[in-house]
Amino acid sequence: MLSNPPVYVADFPVTETTHVNLVETVKKRMAAAKKTILFFANTNFIVKCRPLLSKMLNDEVIIVNDGVGMDIAAKLLYRRKFMSNLNGTDFTPYFFYANAINPLRVFLLGGKADVLDKAAYYLVHDLKQIVVGSCDGYEDIKRPELVQIINEAKPDVLLVAMGNPRQEQWILDNYQQLDVKFISGVGALFDFWAGDKPRAPAWVQELRMEWLYRLCIEPRRLIKRYTLDILIFLTHCFRYRKKPTKAVTL
After folding, report:
1. What is the per-residue pLDDT for 242?
2. How far is CA 59 from CA 55, 63, 66, 125, 225, in A?
3. Is the pLDDT of residue 98 over 70?
4. Average of per-residue pLDDT across 60-83
5. For residues 12-31, b (16+ Cβ closer than 10 Å) or e, as one string?
6. Is 15 in a helix, a strand, or coil?
7. Residue range 99-157, pLDDT digits in tens
8. pLDDT, position 248
9. Which of 92, 39, 43 is nearest to 67 (CA)?
């Protein structure tokens, strides 16, 4: 289970853990019928999701660190890095590989319709899970009966891929009405699974430079995130560097 106290980055309680421990924690919580919401906090998350912080401060939400920017913040604030780097693109398939013997029922929410079909195929044929439904992040997301559609599919896992802060906002607004044990915001994961967006080569990932690779591929979309938003992120880190009086216990 997650026993380490959270590391506060701009007031967000970030859980310091490893892939193995996080999988075990989620599995135990699911077995105990405890709902779990998993968010991957990178610099963009810290900047864009600040208005949602108060809604995240409960025992059903786990926030973990994603990316070199979070390590830089931890180094500046606490003189050490996080023990592991966690991100939805790597952790999600890792979690499903750990459940390959007993496949889980998965619902996909977000992305384009054609991307969803390809992502669902990958989830079934490569990760050996059961896809029980999908809704895109454009037209389907507007359907008033969306929560009912998801509940009627009876998924064990709901993956929401709409980017920060849309996916976090939707999850926090709806999770109490959802009969799903594990809900995770996964950003561009469906695009990677569908092959619509390439991932950086392994050696680039090892150097923790995947952000630069993505910037080179999508400069117009990402230039602000990796310039101005980084400055806002660092400002938040120092402005809100004191721990809140109440720590989140997981």
Report:
1. 62
2. 11, 11, 20, 34, 30
3. yes
4. 94
5. bbbbbbebebbbebbbebbe
6. strand
7. 888 999 999 999 999 999 999 999 999 999 999 999 998 888 889 999 999 999 999 99
8. 38
9. 43
CB neighbour burial string for 179-216, b if at least 16 within 10 angstroms, e if fewer:
ebbbbbbbbbbbbbbbeeeebbeeeebeeeebbebbbe
Pull the structure tokens for residue 89.
Answer: 């693109």
Show the tokens assigned to 227: 């310039």
> Which tokens in the block code for residue 123?
């989830």
Q: How far apart are CA 227 and CA 167, in angstroms?
A: 23
Lookup result for tokens 């454009």: 138
Instruction: DSSP letter for 245, please.
Output: S
The residue with tokens 């606490």 is 78
Number of residues that this document lists for the chain:
250
With tokens 């913040």, the residue in question is: 73
Q: Which of 12-16, 29-33, 74-78, 207-211 has the lowest mean pLDDT?
A: 207-211
